[in-house]
Design a protein that fits this description.
The protein has 124 residues and is of the alpha+beta class. 17% of the residues lie in helices and 46% in strands.
Length: 124
Amino acid sequence: MEVYELEGNRPVPLLGLEILSKEGVREWNQNKVCSCLARDASGECVLSLWNHEVDLFQEGDFVVVKKGWCKEYRGDLQVSSGRYGKIELVKRSKEHKPESLEAKEPQISLTSYLRPTLSELRFR
């Protein structure tokens, strides 16, 4: 899926994005939330990071949203992990690579999502 295909109140099965910028963290209903401007080759959207995701990702990261959700808010499309999905790191920006995060976050291969082998599909 690509950004131009997003529709409000629809699931997002798989979407690869680059995080361009991150706004400040705020609280909403006792949860931490942060809005990020993100893009792929087809366009831009807002990526909402919730709770633990806020600290995991930063500007310049390439991420994959799996089984996420898209909603429309004030005319902007917002993508998040939703209730059942997750956001995974594909590639960390070299400029923002703290050593403490290197060991904690395994990076995944984007090709494994775009062209998975049978053995990779069995272990998902």
